[in-house]
Predict the 3D structure of the following.
Amino acid sequence: MLVTGATGYLGRRVVTRLTERGIPVRALVRREDERAARLREMGARTFVGDLRQPASLHPAVDGVQAIIHAAGVSGHMGRGGNTPRAVDEQGTCALIDLAVRAGSVTHFVLISLIGANFVDQSVHFLAKRRAEQYLRSSGLRHTILRPGTLMADWATAWERYGRRGLYPAIGSPEKRLALVSPDDVAELAVRALWTPGPTSRTYDVTSGERLTPRDVAALYTAAFGRPVHVRTVPVWPLKAGGWLLRPVAPNVAEVLRFLAALGQHEFEGEPERVERDFGVQLTPYREYLIQSRPTARVKENV
Ligand SMILES: NC(=O)c1ccc[n+]([C@@H]2O[C@H](COP(=O)([O-])OP(=O)(O)OC[C@H]3O[C@@H](n4cnc5c(N)ncnc54)[C@H](OP(=O)(O)O)[C@@H]3O)[C@@H](O)[C@H]2O)c1
């Protein structure tokens, strides 16, 4: 089993789930560092490679039975040429080609992005859409998971929002968020390999809750025992910046367009279909916060 993006927020959770089940894991990493060492401690075999250099992926793909492709560009977009187009689109297509050529791959799980099928104003969504289309036409048995925003675990939420007491809401603070637990997505990616069904499946994955930014700020306020306020960021400056900065700072412009797209659209998952097909119960955010910091105080407060 090959896991790409194994050092990432989602990928390391996939590796954990596989190694806990005693499944041999190859973990793709971009460099030898302490994160790679931690993956080896967990029982994975690490392979150094970069999706922008397909030749570097050969040893990791050679003879592998399944691939969970959780690598992608998120957060920082474009540093050192690591753009959504180069990684999420071209890198993914190159990996798919290698998987086809290897002849041993019986299932390819692609982590895409909710909205990849209809959002047009950001390269990030388009790159994911093109990768999905390439996978569908590859002939490989596959599952495409399109997660909503991955829930911040307790520690991440504290660092990002608790410390500063601010939670950003793009667009309206009353807009419904499309959140999903990263642990649930990791579990679905693993279960996809053994869940019988058609050769080509795609799922929009969210917890199905109707949480708004105000609700999330209230959850954090309770969890951290200090106020977390919503800071509303209107969509129009993001859109304007996305167009104006395009010629001079294309990567920054793409980040702004990506955020504007998140603010403009309401994304719907298919929780009932996901739960039925995979035999899981998707985790509500309150529950996820408790699980990710299971102390009595958080249980009481959240
Ligand atoms: N985060 C979200 O809310 C969210 C929502 C929906 C979908 N997704 C999708 O879920 C996937 C994982 O997201 P995440 O939040 O776990 O992201 P993350 O924490 O930023 O992890 C991304 C992973 O991809 C690796 N990577 C980046 N560029 C690469 C390259 N050129 N070659 C090989 N590996 C490369 C990174 O390696 P390094 O550690 O070396 O940088 C890291 O392991 C992505 O495809 C993302 O689009 C995320």
User: Anything to note?
Assistant: The longest strand covers residues 142-147. The chain is about 45% helix and 15% strand. Residues 2-301 form a domain with the Rossmann fold fold (CATH 3.40.50.720). Residues 4-11, 30, 50-52, 70-75, 82, 87, 91, 111, 113, 147, 149-150 surround NAP (CB under 6 Å).
